[in-house]
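DM from R.C. (forwarded with permission)

"hey, sorry to bug you on a friday — could you get me a structure for this? deadline for the figure draft is monday and I only need the backbone to look sensible"
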Amino acid sequence: MASFKLAQLSDTHVVRKHSVLSNGVDSNHALRAAVYQLIKADDIDAVLLSGDLVERGEIYEYFELRNILDPLMGLKPVYLMLGNHDVRDNFLGLFRDYPFINQANNSWGVQYSVTLNDTHALVVLDTLKEGRDAGYLSADKLIWLDRTLERHREKSVLLAMHHPMIDVGNSMMNKMNLVNQSDLSAVLQKHKNVNRIFCGHIHREITDAFGTIPVQVCPSTAFAYPANLNESNVDQLCRDNPGYLVHEITDGVLTSKRHNLDLHASLATA
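My reply, with the result:
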């Protein structure tokens, strides 16, 4: 059985052309570096961006995001999902031609599922509740999830959502996690086919479990937050390398590997 490789990028925080983030990081350059690596890696079958695609949700930021992603999209599927920095209407105005985005509606937002191979399916959830940093799954979204997991009952499901539902080891970030974790748990307990949960939001790589389901939090391609993040150091540039994950399915078994982006070196030579 041939392997399937899914690259997961997260918290790309793209800004307007010729701009940088408030902490001085050129997030657009960082995402271009990641895209360049993925274009060169001809064994990557698909790419997932797990939310906070842009910094302020502005239409001009989404224009720049398209400029960066379109060369990659021309070679392999690019699956997009939303985070708390995104604005759903502005995103939909530019990305409805990307895979499955045209399925979005007012009840469940940007949610869809795709069969990856003979053994696994990817299910994307929209945890964005505009106007707040924390995530939330409405009743309609949870009903959709319940039905989608049932439809994929013969597959191992990789569940992707921006906001984690685990203790991430930082009180400030825990307040911005998924709010209604128990509602999600109630749906997942009805189904035994969720193999892994992929998240973003924290800007650091974290592994834990939600009940019995392993959870992986993807690092940001832009920058890492300090491990001791608080109100006083939120804009402080952490020297830890950003990066992304590559999830490989071989003979029905899922393994994951981190790929670093040496942002500081690449910025120095840009």
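R.C.: lifesaver. The domain at 4-269 is CATH 3.60.21.10 (Purple Acid Phosphatase; chain A, domain 2).
me: no worries. The mean pLDDT is 92.
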